[in-house]
Write a structure and sequence with these properties.
Blueprint: H1 2-12, E1 26-27, E2 33-34, H2 36-49, E3 69-70, H3 72-82, E4 106-108, E5 113-115, H4 117-120, E6 130-132, H5 133-242, H6 245-249
Protein name: Tripartite motif-containing protein 5
GO biological process, one term: defense response to virus
Family: Belongs to the TRIM/RBCC family.
Length: about 260
C-alpha cells in the first residue's frame, strides 16, 4: 500500500518532458510543473518554431515568462522522495554534472557534449545551441538506425556480389577444365597419328636401306670379280711378255666375269 502511494506521489512530481523526478521545479499558472532545464529548452524550441509563442507542453495554454514560479513545495517532496527507494531500479545511478551536481539533461551542439542547465548558463556554453538530451539521443538513434540499415543493405549487396564472383569462378574453372580435357585429347590423337606416321616412315626407310644395300652389295661383288679377272689377265700378259715366243703365242682362255 505504501509502495502504491509512493508511486503515485512519484508520478505527480515527475517532469512530463524528461520523465524524471523534477529538478529545480518551475510551475506555470496552469498548474503543471517542469524541470527548469526542460522548460527552458522547450521555451527556446517554441521561440524558434512557433514565432515567439509560449505554451505549456502538456495543456498548450499560453504563458508569460514572468508567470513562471519556482515551486519549493514540489522541490521538497522530490527531495524527500529521492531518499526513498521504491525498487532496485530506483537506486540506480543517475549521471550528474561533475561541476554543478545537476542532472545531465541537455546536449550542446557546438561542443558535442552533455551538460546540465547550469552549464548552459555558464560562460563556456553561453550562446550555444542546446537541446534536450533525449531528443538528441532519439535523433542520433534514428540516424544510426538509418546508417545501420544502409550498411546492412551494402553488406547484402557485397555478399551477393561475392557469391556471384564465386559462381563465376566456379563456372570458369569448369569451362577451363573442359577445354584442357579437349586439348589433351586432341594432342593425344595427334600423337597417335604422328606415331603411326613415324613408324611407317621408319619402316619405309629401313626397307629402302635394305634394298639399296642389297643392290650395292651385289654390284660390289661383281666389281670384285671383274677386278680379279682383270688382275689375272694382267698377270698372264706380263708372264707371256717375259716368256718365249711360244709362250707369247699361246692364248690363255679363262672364264670372263659376269657383267
Amino acid at each position: 500500500m505504501a509502495s502504491e502511494i509512493l508511486l503515485n506521489v512519484k508520478e505527480e512530481v515527475t517532469c512530463p518532458i524528461c520523465l524524471e523526478l523534477l529538478t529545480e521545479p518551475l510551475s506555470l499558472h496552469c498548474g503543471h510543473s517542469f524541470c527548469q532545464a526542460c522548460i527552458t529548452a522547450n521555451h527556446k524550441k517554441s521561440m524558434l518554431y512557433k514565432e515567439g509563442e509560449r505554451s505549456c507542453p502538456v495543456c498548450r495554454i499560453s504563458y508569460q515568462p514572468e508567470n513562471i514560479q519556482p515551486n519549493r513545495h514540489v522541490a521538497n517532496i522530490v527531495e524527500k522522495l529521492r531518499e526513498v527507494k521504491l525498487s532496485p531500479e530506483e537506486g540506480q545511478k543517475v549521471d550528474h554534472c561533475a561541476r554543478h551536481g545537476e542532472k545531465l539533461l541537455l546536449f550542446c551542439q557546438e561542443d558535442s557534449k552533455v551538460i546540465c542547465w547550469l552549464c548552459e548558463r555558464s560562460q563556456e556554453h553561453r550562446g550555444h545551441h542546446t537541446f534536450l538530451m533525449e531528443e538528441v539521443a532519439q535523433e542520433y538513434h534514428v540516424k544510426l538506425q538509418t546508417a545501420l540499415e544502409m550498411l546492412r543493405q551494402k553488406q547484402q549487396e557485397a555478399e551477393k556480389l561475392e557469391a556471384d564472383i564465386r559462381e563465376e569462378k566456379a563456372s570458369w574453372k569448369i569451362q577451363i577444365d573442359y577445354d584442357k580435357t579437349n586439348v589433351l585429347a586432341d594432342f593425344e590423337q595427334l600423337r597417335e597419328i604422328l606415331d603411326r606416321e613415324e613408324s611407317n616412315e621408319l619402316q619405309n626407310l629401313e626397307k629402302e636401306e635394305e634394298d639399296i644395300l642389297k643392290s650395292l652389295t651385289k654390284s660390289e661383288t661383281k666389281m670384285v670379280q671383274q677386278t680379279q679377272y682383270v688382275r689375272e689377265l694382267i698377270s698372264d700378259l706380263e708372264h707371256r711378255l717375259q716368256g718365249s715366243m711360244m709362250d707369247l703365242l699361246q692364248v690363255k682362255r679363262g672364264k670372263k666375269p659376269e657383267h
